[in-house]
Specification:
This is F-box domain-containing protein. The protein is of the alpha/beta class and 353 residues long. It has 13 helices and nine strands.
Length: 353
C-alpha cells in the first residue's frame, strides 16, 4: 500500500497544509524531516492563559522553538471569587509575554476573559465592579489592584507585555475601560511608542447600562483627556507616536462619539495625538465634530478612514449637543484646508445606536 513517505516531497508538504494543528503535531512526531518542516506551522502562534500548567507548557515550547513564533495570544482569566495573590500573574505567563524567547513574534493579542457580564454575582460579592460606578485617581487604582485579583491581573499583564521589544502589532479584545498602574510606567509608554498597528475592542457589558452612559467610571475613562487624568487618550493613545493603523471597536452598549448629555465623546482621538496615523477604522461610533477635528489635525497623513459601521444622530445644535448628520460630517471633512490626504473613505453602513 502506498504511504505518505513515498510521495514526492513537494506533494507531501502540500498535503500537510490541509491538516489541523493537532494532526500536524502528531505527524511531526513520526520522523525528523516532518518535525523540521512542520515546526514553523506548529509554533507560529502560541496561545496561553494565566493557568500555571498551560503557561508552563507554552513556555517550554518557546524555549525550544520560539524562533518559529510570530504571534502571541494571551487570555488572562479571573473570577469574582479569586483571592488576591502576589503576583497575580504567574511567572511563566509573564516570561512568555516579555518576548524573551520569541524574537520574531511581532504580533500580540490579549483578551481579558473575566465574565464581567455576570454583574449581579460580582457585585453581590463586592468584587470590585464599583470601578465602573465611580471615576478613580492613580492612588485609588493602585488600592483596587491590591484588593482585587482581576484588577491586579490586568496591570501585571500589561507590565509584562511592556517588556517585549519585538511586538509591533497589538490586538486587545475585551479591553477593560479602566486605568491600570502599569499605564504610568516608562516601559509601557515606550512599548506603545514602538507599535505600528493596534486594534482595540472595548468591553461593554450589561452592567454598563442599555445605552452605555450609565456608570461614570466607565464613561470617564473613555473620554477623559485632561492633563494628568486617567483615560483612553492619556493612558494609551497619546503615547502611540509611531502608530500607522488603528481600529477602535466600541461596545454595542457603549457607542462612542457626540458630545451631548447621552453620549461618550471621542475626545480620546485628540487632534495632536497619533501623529503618524495613516489608517483609522471605527465601529459603533457616532460621527461628530470631535472626529472632524481629529481628521483636521491629521489632514496631511491620514489616507484611509473606515466608518462603515458607525452611525449618525443627525444635526443636534442644542446646548452641549454636537452630533452630526452624515451630510454635515462629509461637508466639514471636505471643507478642511489644506485638503485631507484621504484616498480611501468607507462609509454608508446602517448601524444604529
Amino acid at each position: 500500500m502506498p504511504s505518505l513517505a513515498q510521495l514526492p516531497r513537494e506533494l507531501s508538504f502540500q498535503v500537510f497544509s490541509y491538516l489541523t494543528h493537532r494532526d500536524k503535531v502528531r505527524l511531526s512526531a513520526t520522523c525528523h524531516e516532518y518535525h523540521t518542516h512542520l515546526a514553523t506551522a506548529i509554533f507560529k502562534t502560541i496561545r496561553f492563559t494565566n493557568e500555571e500548567a498551560v503557561a508552563q507548557s507554552a513556555l517550554a515550547a518557546v524555549k525550544a522553538y520560539g524562533q518559529h513564533t510570530t504571534r502571541l495570544e494571551f487570555t488572562p482569566v479571573a473570577w469574582w471569587n479569586d483571592e488576591p495573590a502576589v503576583p497575580a500573574l504567574n511567572p511563566a505567563a509573564a516570561e512568555l509575554l516579555s518576548g524573551r524567547h520569541t524574537p520574531n513574534a511581532r504580533a500580540a493579542q490579549m483578551r481579558f476573559a473575566f465574565d464581567l457580564n455576570n454583574f449581579e454575582e460580582w457585585d453581590e460579592m463586592g468584587a470590585g465592579l464599583d470601578a465602573f460606578t465611580y471615576s478613580e485617581n492613580a492612588d485609588q487604582v493602585a488600592a483596587k489592584e491590591r484588593k482585587w485579583k482581576w484588577r491586579a491581573l490586568v496591570s501585571e499583564s500589561w507590565a509584562a507585555l511592556s517588556e517585549n521589544e519585538h511586538v509591533r502589532d497589538l490586538t486587545v479584545n475585551e479591553l477593560i475601560p479602566k486605568s491600570a498602574s502599569a499605564f504610568r510606567s516608562s516601559f509601557f509608554r515606550r512599548f506603545l511608542a514602538r507599535l505600528e498597528s493596534a486594534t482595540l475592542r472595548i468591553w461593554g457589558g450589561d452592567c454598563v447600562g442599555s445605552s452605555g452612559h450609565v456608570f461614570t467610571g466607565y464613561v470617564e475613562w473613555l473620554w477623559n483627556t485632561r492633563e494628568g487624568s486617567l483615560g483612553l487618550g492619556t493612558d494609551i493613545l497619546r503615547h502611540m507616536r509611531n502608530l500607522k493603523q488603528l481600529e477602535i471597536h466600541a461596545a454595542d452598549t457603549g457607542f462612542l462619539g457626540g458630545t451631548g448629555t447621552h453620549n461618550i465623546p471621542l475626545y480620546a482621538l485628540a487632534p495632536d495625538s497619533l501623529p503618524a496615523l495613516q489608517s483609522l477604522t471605527l465601529t459603533n461610533c457616532l460621527v461628530g465634530r470631535e472626529l472632524v477635528e481629529f481628521i483636521r489635525g491629521h489632514a496631511g497623513v491620514l489616507t484611509s478612514l473606515n466608518v462603515a459601521d458607525c452611525a449618525s444622530l443627525g444635526d443636534m445644535d442644542g446646548p452641549g449637543e454636537h452630533s452630526q448628520s452624515w451630510v454635515t460630517f462629509f461637508d466639514e471633512v471636505h471643507s478642511i484646508k489644506p485638503a485631507v490626504a484621504l484616498t480611501e473613505l468607507v462609509a454608508g453602513g446602517t448601524k444604529a445606536p
